[in-house]
Design a protein that fits this description.
- This protein is an alpha+beta fold.
- Helices cover 63% and strands 12% of the residues.
- The protein is built from 8 helices and 7 strands.
- Helix 3 packs parallel to helix 4 and helix 5 packs parallel to helix 8.
- It is elongated, with a radius of gyration of 38 Å.
- Keywords: Kinase, Membrane, Phosphoprotein, Transferase, Transmembrane, Transmembrane helix, Two-component regulatory system.
- It catalyses: ATP + protein L-histidine = ADP + protein N-phospho-L-histidine.
- It is found in: Cell membrane.
- This is histidine kinase.
Length: 370
């Protein structure tokens, strides 16, 4: 038992010495390629075995021949181990270089293409994460490009929409100033209409800027969906009569909801104005409010004839109008963007889908608590 303990102690001392030297080497070479570190690890394992074996052999006073045999066997094992470590290190290093090149292309604005061939589980996990990140970034780039297109369109359209009434206002004011206006009352009424239109446009721009800046402050109160729809219908009736459109609001559940009444009235008002202007005379615009598993669903269905499928995803984008027209009643393309911003501020969502003869805008709001 004493001899066995002595042998174990000698082997441990030799292995510990080799391990400490290997740890020091790894620390000094930590910035070197992976193949160097793997070679050091293999060398440590073989050296620890060789040191322990030699220490035990000297303690047991083996013959020179036996000691040579043991040393030769350990040396052959060391050669094979080092060769295997180097091959493994070169393979892992090659896969790491391929992954680095793919990530470099991805970082320069391209898409991530995973290197071909097998790899370690860790590198495969890293490859999957890079591929998922690449997909998310590509989606973000596409949204950014769409927003930039919308911004450019909005600037162009707003510039046109402001320039047109300003030109008319200047012409009418000059006519009034020169005494050339035969019907000054008509000119004044037209000036007032243009000023009101510009005021509405500036108000929409201000509201949209608050939404985009995240400074829209809500004051939610508990109200009934019946009251929200009733107020919106009452405000839209004059415009509906002017366009010869019939309003229907007979499918309204008296469901309570916690919203900012002023902002939500603006949402329904924008949806109704948009629907009335797009619905031909003698058409119908229907408003409904029904409870669902997601909360309260407010819907406005018009008779516009439907929206092209390729435009459905852009309906709520800033500056989208649905037609290239830049004159009234086309508007500045801000109403539906404001709708989405206000609804999302209420933790809801706004959707649109085509129905027979028109389209249906739906606003889903969380149900009132309690």
């Amino acid at each position: 038992m004493t001899d066995l303990l002595l042998i174990a102690l000698l082997a441990l001392l030799g292995a510990v010495t080799a391990g400490l030297l290997g740890a020091l080497a790894l620390r000094l070479l930590r910035h070197r390629p992976l193949v160097v570190s793997l070679t050091v690890v293999a060398a440590v394992a073989v050296t620890a075995m060789l040191a322990g074996t030699l220490a035990v052999a000297w303690a047991m006073f083996l013959s020179p021949h036996d000691l040579t045999v043991v040393t030769t066997v350990v040396a052959m094992a060391a050669v094979v181990s080092l060769a295997t470590a180097m091959l493994l290190g070169r393979w892992v290093a090659a896969r790491s270089r391929d992954l680095t090149m793919a990530a470099r292309d991805f970082g320069e604005g391209g898409t991530f293409a995973a290197p071909e061939g097998q790899s370690t589980a860790e590198l495969d996990a890293l490859t999957r994460e890079l591929a998922a990140t690449s997909a998310k970034l590509e989606s973000s780039r596409e949204r950014e490009r769409a927003l930039e297109r919308s911004r450019r369109e909005l600037v162009a359209w707003i510039s046109h929409d402001l320039r047109t009434p300003l030109t008319g206002l200047r012409a009418m004011s000059e006519a009034l100033e020169d005494g050339l206006a035969q019907d000054s009352g008509r000119y004044l009424r037209q000036i007032r209409r243009e000023v009101e239109r510009m005021n509405d446009m500036v108000g929409d721009l201000f509201e949209l800027s608050r939404i985009h800046a995240g400074s829209l402050t809500l004051a939610p109160t508990r109200v009934s969906a019946h009251d929200l729809v009733g107020d919106a219908l009452a405000g839209a009736h004059p415009l509906a009569r002017e366009h010869g459109v019939r309003l229907i609001g007979d499918r309204v559940d008296a469901v309570p909801v916690e919203v900012d009444s002023k902002e939500m009235s603006r949402v329904l008002g924008n949806l109704l104005i948009n629907a009335i202007r797009r619905t031909p005379a003698d058409g119908t615009v229907a408003v409904a409010a029904q409870s669902s598993s997601d909360g309260l669903v407010l819907s406005v269905t018009d008779g516009c004839g439907g929206i092209p499928e390729e435009d459905l995803a852009r309906v709520f984008d800033t500056g989208w109008r649905g037609s290239p027209a830049r004159t009234p009643p086309a508007g500045a393309g801000l109403g539906l963007a404001i709708v989405r911003g206000i609804v999302e501020a209420h933790s809801g969502r706004a959707d649109v889908r085509n129905v027979a003869g028109g389209c249906c805008f739906e606003v889903t709001l969380p149900a009132a608590r309690g």
